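Researcher: Please translate sequence to C-alpha cells.
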Amino acid sequence: MDPELCALLAEMNSSEGALDQSGDNELLAVLDEQRGFFETLRLYVGIGIGHILPDGADHILFVLAIFLASVRVGALVWQISAFTVAHTVTLALAATGFITPSSSVVEPLIAFTIAFVAIENLVFREMTRWRPAVVFGFGLIHGLGFAGFFGELGLPPGQFWSALIGFNVGVEIGQLSVILVAAIVGYALRRWLRDPAGVAGYRSWIVRPGSALIGLTGLWWGVTRLL
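Model: Translation complete:
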C-alpha cells in the first residue's frame, strides 16, 4: 500500500477520538490543505483501490457475476465498459451535487443488482442481447454507492477534481485486478475441466454453482439492508 496512504490512515486512527467528539468523520480534518494536484490524485487512487480491495465485497461479487457469464473476451469487454461508463457518470453527478441519493435506497438496490445478474447467469446459457444495457443501468446504481463513500471522505480544499479522478481511477484498478485474478483462475479451471463436455463442463461445475452462491448472497444482503 502507498506509504503516504498508510500514514494518513494511521493519523486518522490516532485522531478517531477527536473526530467522534466533533461528529465529523471527514478526511478533511487530517488532510494537508496544501497538498498538490498529483499528490491528491495519487492519494485518492490508493483510496479508490482500497474501496474495492478488500472493502468492496458487493462490487467484487457484481464484477464476478459479469465475468462468469462471459465465455468470450469481447462480451466481457462490452459489459465492463458499460459498467465503468455508468458508474463514472453517477459518481460524478453525485459528487458534484447534481443528485443526492439516499444510502438507505442505494445499498439494497446494489445488493439486488448482484442477485439479478447472477440469476440471469443461471437462466440463460449465453449472454443475452440486453445484458450490456442491464449492466449499464446497474452501473448507474453502483456509481451512487461509490459516491456515498466518496462523499463521506471529505475533500482537500481546491482539489475536488484531482480527488474525484484519482478515486475513480483507483476503483477501476481494483475492478480490473478482480477480473485479472478471475481470468487466471478461470483459465486454469477450463484447462483442468477440458473434458468431452468442454465449455459445458465449465458451466456446470463453475458458472452455475458460482452464480448460485453469488445470487443467494445478493438476495440476503438486499433483504438485510431493507430491514
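Researcher: Any highlights?
Model: The mean pLDDT is 83.
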